[in-house]
Each structure stands twice: as structure tokens, then as C-alpha cells.
Design brief:
- 2 copies of one chain form a homodimer.
- Chain A has helices at residues 9-19, 61-77, 98-114, 164-173, 183-186, 192-201, 214-225, 242-249, 253-259, 275-280, and strands at residues 33-35, 42-50, 82-92, 118-126, 130-138, 155-159, 204-209, 228-232, 266-270, 285-292, 297-300, 305-307.
- Chain A has 313 residues and is an alpha+beta fold.
- In chain A, a hairpin with a 4-residue loop joins β11 (297-300) and β12 (305-307).
- At the A-B interface, β1, β2, β3, β4 and β5 of A face β1, β2, β3, β4 and β5 of B.
Chain lengths: 313, 313
């Protein structure tokens, strides 16, 4: 093994350039990168993950890299943007095997490739392990979907299903890997196509990704839009593995589906008069509730309802 | 004091939004930022600084924030680009006073403001202290200046002067703050106007910023361009404080001017047949040597010359 601390900067950059695909324009290796003219608004975000907090049992370095890219691509998706380029700000222990760093970059690059994007640059410093990834994308002329914009009477919906990431986590922690897949947890799939379609439809009034869980996402939209929500527990689409983890380990479904992060689905609200338009965009989603005047998101169990607490993350 | 670990994410974002200027388009607070249409190539870079390595004695948190912005703006400048937006990927100890974080953001914002740019987004995670900053800019149609492109016979030049950052460091470490200014070290001024003019001139064949020192910058250009350099020690423009630190503390000038990072000047090569054109662009620079076939940068003392060693950083 060669530890990171032993390697010169030039060798490291050369090593990384051999691992990842080189982008159009000018990629890693000079002072800055040049992304060819996109002729549109730029959408950008930065989000970090750390070894300490985002490296669950059983995860590989490659999956950690995928995750670093995915959390940011998901942030673009929630606005209706598509990714173009990533920049990787790495903070890594000096005694890390350099192959682990290459695996991280490879995982980032594979995730980027899945969405037609490239790694355009990076930087490595020594410290506690983590990747602060920046994603740059474009709306291609669409209006961005924001957290603000939800209005009382709008319908609340979510793409995909909820709780699979949490189920994967509990399964890995408790030796149930054979029964429940960990891939929703380890290599989440950002909803870029769905985000593009939702933004293009013109029907959506607010949107956020569920990186921090449904409860936290709902609270963020409520705060930004100054509205409340009534979300029906029975309407929530249950993810793969949730039933198994509940029956085998007794973890409440509510915890997995409401209070756990990591699903990377899109939570959005839309104008109910535009439901037909929305359906014509062919996005697979579930209606889960309605926007209210309450200023707080509630979860409704039929016989009673309770205000959603803070998320686990 | 309120420690970072006690503060919720929403409060933190709100606190930061109260500290920094809000940019045109969509700034911090949603999943991504939207930078209004620039209609040109995007230039982007990421560079990190850490408490452990880039927080010299006497530095304030505000200056640390300035530094995080400046190192990236300088990377844009070395290509001939101007900054538009910054994104701040923070890794901060949970017990940090939140005011220190606000001071970091304020320092970043003041630096950005000096160059007509804004902070467009950010993210905070817990860990060893550091800022991974991404800068996004544009060339406004100019061709980028790269590290590659220098040819034997080209003239080597540098903006400003060398060694002031090192002099500021040694002065602060040894109680000479009254004699030598620390501002070149604490709040370096990236050469954006100079970079724009150099790129616009069409005379420059390669360029790099001196964040890592003259020796390291020269080696980077030599490696990327597959050339050598002969740089004359007597031609090097001596920065403020270098003479004082040499005479008071005996630190060799060579160490401060060649092997120390932090000056953030531009090192560039240009086609000697275009010298008149370059002068017409009114950039203040010093000629320091000539590009050779050697494959290595040499420092020439008149009676002898030696290969430049590795930089201090």
C-alpha cells in the first residue's frame, strides 16, 4: 500500500486522471477547469459527506464516492436541473491507502457518468475524512422548483418509495444482508429525469429531495412556503425491505419512512387543477397528502394526527 | 457563546444569510443556487484550507474566510477568468463558537465583494476544521491561460513581488509584527485584473498562480509544458518585509522568495515577439528569466545555478 501522505501532488493528480473519464473542455490538472459554453443559467450546490457520519457498515470506498456525487446530483434534481460537472474537495487522512482515494474518485465518476456528467476538478487536503462535492448543472431554460411556492390546497406527492435506505441500514447492522438489499442505502439513485419532467410540467409549486427524510423535507417546504401539510400514513409508498426489517427487528415503519434520510426521492407539491398535465409527463409518483394553513406538517393516522418531529439526520 | 453543535441547520443558514450579501439569482437557502445566465464557458475550481495547516499565529476567523475565497479567486485569475460565485463546503468542529463560523463567512463575502462576486451556497458538516471553497467564473470569451504552452525562448515574468507572505509569517512568529506587515500573508490579493489583461493580450503562453511558491509554480509549468527555465535570482522583485526579516532573523531571502507559498502573484511566460503588445495592456510585471530546453527550472546566481528544489508547501 501507498499512503496518501507519501504521494506527491502531481502523482496524485496523475493517478486520478488515470481513473476517471476526462471531460470535454478542460478537466482536472490545471488551476481551474473550463466547462464548455452552456449558454444558460448555472445551477450549483455543495454538500459534504464524512467518514464519521456517512460510512455505514459494509460500505465500500467506491460507494462512498458514489454517495458524494449522488447527494449533490439529487440537490440539482430537486430544482429540475441536470448535472454537467462535479468538483471534489477531499479531506483525507494522511495514512489512507491511496487506492481508497482512487476508489472514491471512481465511484464519483461512475455516478456522474450515469447522469451524463463529468468530474471537472478537485483538491485534496489532510484532515478527518470527507468529501465536499460541488455539482454544477443547468435548468436548460426551465424555471427552478423551489422549497417556497407551496399553497394551501396544493396536493403533496413523492416519487418512488420510502424507507428502503433505512431498511438497508438496519439490515446491515443486524446481519440481515441476505434478506434486505443495501443498495438503496449505499448507491442511491437521484431522480434527475423525474425532476426535469416535474419542472417542465409547470404544475409543481414546490420541491425538495428527501436526503434528510420525509419529515425534515416536509418541514423545510412548510417553513419556506409558510404553509402546513397533512400527510396520510396509509398513503405513503412503502419501500423494499421495510416490511422485513419491521417484522424481523421490530423497527417501526414510521421511523424508517418518515424520520430516516437517504431515500433521495423528490417530495413536491402541485396545483391540483394541473393534475392532468402532470400525469401527461409520465412521472411515477404517489399522492400522500394536502397542503394546509397550519404552518406545520402533520402525519395523519386516520384516527389521530401528530406534528412531525425533527428528522433523524 | 453558542456552539455550532447546538444550532439547528435552519438557524445556521438564516444566520449566514444575515451576514453575507444575497446574490442576484438564487442564493443560499434552497437545495441548489441559480446563477443568472452568463452565456459563456464556465470556469470552476475547488481548493481547501484547514485550521491545522492554514491558520498562522495572529490570523482571525475573518481572515481565514478571506483566505478560503482568495485562493480560489486566484486560481480563476491565473486562467484569465473573473469570479462570479463561490460555494463554501465547511467542515467545522461541533464545539466551535458559531460566531467564528459567521466571521469566516463574512471574510469570504468581503473578499468576494472585492471582485464583484457573491457567495451562492454552502454546506456545513462536523469534522476537523476546514473550508473547501468552489469558485465559479467566466472567461468572457478569452482563451484560458494554461500551465502547458510555454516554449523555449519565451520570457518568464511575474506580477507584483515575492516573499511578503513568508516575511509576514516569520515576523508574526517572532514578535516583529510592528516592523513587518502580516496582511500579505493574512489577506492576499488575487491578481484578477492582471490575469484578465494577460489573457486578453494574446501574448501569454502559460500562466500559474504562486499560491505554492515560485519554485513549485515554475516546476508545474515546466512539467506541463515539457520545458525548462532559467530564472535569475537578481531579477526577482523583492517583497515588502523580506529585507527586514532577513536582517533581523537571518531567514534566507531565497527561502522566502522561492520556496514559500502564499504570495498569490501570477507567474507567466510570453512570446518575446509580442512584448510590445503585452506592455500595452498596462500590467505591472517583472521579467525574471527565460524558458529553456532543460526540462527543469534552474535558479541562476550569476556565478552558478542550481535546480529548484521542491516547494515548502
Amino acid at each position: 500500500m501507498v499512503s496518501l501522505g507519501e504521494l506527491g501532488e502531481r502523482e496524485l493528480v496523475e493517478g486520478i486522471r488515470n481513473i476517471i473519464r476526462l471531460p470535454p473542455g478542460l478537466g482536472p490538472g490545471d488551476d481551474s477547469a473550463v466547462i464548455p459554453n452552456i449558454g444558460r443559467d448555472i445551477v450549483a450546490c455543495v454538500d459534504g459527506i464524512t467518514f464519521e457520519r456517512h460510512f455505514p457498515k459494509g460500505m465500500t470506498y467506491e460507494e462512498f464516492g458514489w454517495m458524494a456525487a449522488a447527494v449533490n446530483i439529487s440537490d440539482l434534481a430537486s430544482m429540475g436541473a441536470v448535472p454537467i460537472g462535479l468538483l471534489a474537495g477531499l479531506t483525507m487522512p494522511a495514512d489512507l491507502d491511496v487506492r481508497s482515494l482512487y476508489d472514491i474518485m471512481l465511484g464519483m465518476d461512475i455516478c456522474a457518468e450515469s447522469y451524463g456528467a463529468y468530474i471537472y476538478g478537485g483538491d485534496t487536503k489532510f484532515g478527518s475524512g470527507g468529501v465536499s462535492c460541488t455539482a454544477i448543472g443547468t435548468l436548460e431554460g426551465r424555471s427552478p422548483m423551489l422549497r417556497s411556492g407551496a399553497r394551501p390546497g396544493d396536493i403533496i406527492a413523492v416519487t418512488g418509495s420510502l424507507g428502503s435506505a433505512a431498511a438497508g441500514f438496519y439490515a446491515a447492522e443486524n446481519g440481515l444482508e441476505g434478506l434486505v438489499s443495501s443498495s438503496p442505502l449505499m448507491t442511491p439513485v437521484p431522480r434527475v429525469d423525474e425532476g426535469v419532467a416535474l419542472a417542465a410540467s409547470g404544475a409543481v409549486t414546490s420541491c425538495i429531495d428527501l436526503s434528510d427524510g420525509l419529515a425534515e423535507g416536509a418541514r423545510s417546504i412548510c417553513n419556506a412556503s409558510k404553509v402546513g401539510m397533512n400527510i396520510h400514513m396509509t398513503f405513503l409508498p412503502e419501500g423494499e425491505g421495510v416490511e422485513t426489517v419491521f417484522s424481523e427487528l421490530g423497527i417501526p415503519k414510521k421511523e424508517m419512512m418518515l424520520y430516516w434520510g437517504g431515500d433521495y426521492e423528490l417530495l413536491f407539491t402541485f396545483d391540483k387543477s394541473k393534475m392532468e398535465t402532470l400525469y401527461s409527463y409520465d412521472v411515477d409518483f404517489s399522492v400522500i397528502g394536502i397542503v394546509t394553513n397550519d404552518n406545520t406538517p402533520y402525519i395523519d393516522y386516520g384516527d389521530r394526527r401528530e406534528a412531525m418531529g425533527n428528522g433523524r439526520y
